């Protein structure tokens, strides 16, 4: 009887092992997405590609997500080519998201591969087309990986001829919303974010935001018009061009001071409340230097924000080639300077700020020392 029981238990164990083995052999077979993949953003009629700012964003390509009907990683690879047939192509980048930015420099490389140049002395044209498509693939893309491609799109590009080319306008971001000084008016002397002096894709702002239950929050605008506008979708940084509709506002829980950083290339941001109670509030700030109307003898006074006493600005000041600094109370007891033109971060008693001649709206934040010179009329 004992021998029979042992044999019976061994038989049951064998059946169980066989069943487990069969369970482990279940295979999910990835299938093509019947909807396919395609670009969903709108494109410009012509992309003007100056040589001065190759790292600036030329276009952010957006596409739909694909579903291969299997638990597998899906990677998207944006490809660009000078040839519509994609005989040779450049991999712009890969991501597991549904969008990827292309820089002016990358688009210029494709344009030059297409035989374009900006030299008026040559017979080569300075206008033409470059081509893009997106590839979606399962797994690591090696071997017999399932993949799908979008249709190829052609974009018209122009390389400005050398004598026409100047400094490319830099993108500005302005605050708008009931949590800000301007309210929901897009043309109310809206406070700008302060662009990093080294990386033109990064913007900063430290200052007061109104908050509370009856406050919707804030967004960013690039001009005094409502489009494009920047905000949130499912908690992620985005803009109306990507979404195809208006994003949500950034919420503000309390009326307080906050530190904000935005990276428009990586589409990320940071946001945290800060304690500014120990920061000194100035009663008079001016701009001075041989680039200013008063040269190094007389300050040109700036206006203090009523909403945020650490923010100072002056509109439409005519500056010449030269240098400038900010200082308090028309004296050298407290002054600020920075090493980068147009925008950057000052230090107390820092270097003179390089200035290029023009008419500017100038903003200065005594809380974090950041400054920005916005050419008048730039939107």
Automatic annotation (TrEMBL):
PROSITE patterns (alphabetical): PROKAR_LIPOPROTEIN (PS51257)
Gene Ontology molecular function: starch binding
Keyword Chloroplast applies: no
Keyword Signal: yes
Record's protein name: SusE outer membrane protein
Domain of life: Bacteria
Domain SusE outer membrane protein, residue spans: 23-121
One GO location term (cellular component): outer membrane
């Amino acid at each position: 009887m004992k021998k029979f029981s042992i044999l019976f238990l061994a038989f049951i164990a064998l059946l169980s092992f066989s069943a487990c083995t069969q369970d482990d052999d279940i295979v999910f077979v990835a299938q093509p997405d019947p909807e396919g993949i395609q670009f969903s953003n709108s494109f410009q009629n012509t992309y003007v590609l100056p040589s001065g700012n190759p790292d600036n964003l030329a276009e952010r390509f957006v596409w739909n997500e694909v579903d291969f009907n299997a638990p597998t990683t899906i990677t998207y690879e944006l490809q660009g080519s000078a040839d519509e047939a994609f005989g040779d192509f450049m991999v712009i980048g890969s991501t597991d998201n549904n969008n990827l930015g292309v820089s002016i420099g990358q688009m210029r490389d494709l344009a030059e591969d297409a035989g374009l140049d900006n030299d008026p002395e040559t017979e080569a044209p300075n206008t033409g087309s470059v081509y893009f498509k997106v590839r979606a693939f399962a797994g690591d893309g090696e071997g017999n990986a399932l993949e799908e491609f979008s249709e190829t799109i052609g974009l018209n590009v122009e390389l400005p001829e050398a004598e026409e080319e100047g400094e490319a306008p830099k993108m500005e971001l302005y605050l708008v919303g009931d949590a800000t000084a301007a309210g929901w008016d897009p043309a109310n002397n809206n406070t700008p974010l302060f662009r990093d002096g080294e990386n033109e894709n990064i913007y900063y702002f430290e200052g007061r935001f109104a908050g509370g239950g009856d406050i919707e929050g804030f967004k960013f605008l690039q001009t005094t018009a409502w489009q494009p506008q920047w905000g949130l979708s499912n908690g992620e940084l985005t803009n109306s061009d990507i979404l195809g509709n208006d994003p949500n506002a950034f919420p503000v829980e309390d009326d307080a001071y906050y530190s904000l950083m935005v990276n428009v290339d990586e589409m990320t941001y940071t946001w945290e409340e800060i304690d500014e109670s120990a920061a000194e509030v100035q009663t008079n700030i001016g701009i001075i230097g041989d680039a200013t109307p008063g040269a190094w003898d007389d300050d040109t006074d700036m206006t203090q924000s009523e909403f945020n006493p650490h923010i100072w600005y002056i509109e439409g000041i005519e500056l010449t080639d030269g240098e400038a600094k900010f200082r308090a109370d028309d004296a050298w007891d407290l002054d600020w300077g920075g090493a980068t033109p147009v925008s950057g971060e000052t230090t107390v008693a820092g270097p003179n700020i390089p200035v290029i001649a023009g008419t500017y709206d100038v903003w200065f934040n005594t809380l974090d020392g950041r400054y920005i010179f916005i050419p008048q009329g730039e939107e």
